[in-house]
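Need tokens for this chain, all 379 residues.
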Amino acid sequence: MKFNTKTIHGGQEHDKAYGAVMPPIYQTSTYAQSTPGGHKGYEYSRTHNPTRHALESAFASIENGSYGLAFGSGLAAIDAVIKLLKPGDEVISTNDLYGGTYRLFTKIFEGFGIKFHFIGMQNTNNIESYVNNNTKLIWVETPTNPMMNIIDIKAAASVAKKHNILLAVDNTFATPYLQQPLDLGADIVMHSATKYLGGHSDVVMGALVVKDKALADKLYFIQNASGAICGPQDSFLVLRGIKTLHIRMQRHCENGKAVAEYLAKHPKIEKVYWPGFKSHPNHEIAKAQMKDFGGMISFVAKGNNYDEAIKIVERLKIFTLAESLGGVESLCGHPASMTHASIPKEAREKIGVVDALIRLSVGIEDEDDLIADLKQAIG
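Here are the structure tokens for all 379 residues:
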């Protein structure tokens, strides 16, 4: 089954009760038993729910995995992965990552004795020098948030396999439409399903997908024991969103290319970060591991001026100034004061997240309207 078909049919079956094409919303916390332990596969909805199960099967299908897990948020999904570790273990993470992930790693799990190394991974040879006997996980974002850096998943997987370390890839920006990390050697794929998988800015959710049963069983245990699950209504919404992922992503990519090229030619724009440019670092790796280059773009106006950046985002009309990304509508953000505010200024600026950086999530509106909006805002 090819990807475009998987988004609609992958891991799904018609409702056994009445043949409903879409899985019903099983808005229930518990299930009747004929005798203690005698049930039809479901006993309590923290553990299992038919609507969530359908969604988890869809997650596994579109990522070419065997097991999917849905959580109450992307951070809850990451939390479950780090709970595979114990005090004294070490994690090698990219130094350019979502601010919430950085906050979870440093403000929560460092306090439990887990050590994190934040390094540049554009050259994956850097990973090897940080590996020691305590290293248990490599955490990768690609493209990264918000600098759009590209990390070679196959090369990172090679390091992980050599040292018997887990490799987890945050695939939120790319989605499985553009890249499938499990096929490139990753052990765990993570998504903030709030973003492109849901696709309509109406739900908060996280996802994990794996191939290995033993690893899946550990994560299912953590999911159930910790209880950070999503509800059936949210499961239904994301399952519905996945069914149009392929056509939405095609338009996101088309519009993203048009916007990136417009910004690159604009006399008032100093830098544009988008992996589709031949000049973008690791562009050739992006071409090799991605089907297209996505709709996420970051840029800096000439002069690297904070006040000018704020004026631009405030003047935008079609691009909405808001947290998040990946919805059908175009959004803009100011990472230094929004998504990455939890990262100290010095650490942010070392990786390029300067106070004048603007991040765009290019939606599926008409590209002419989006470019006209940028034109009037930039001046």
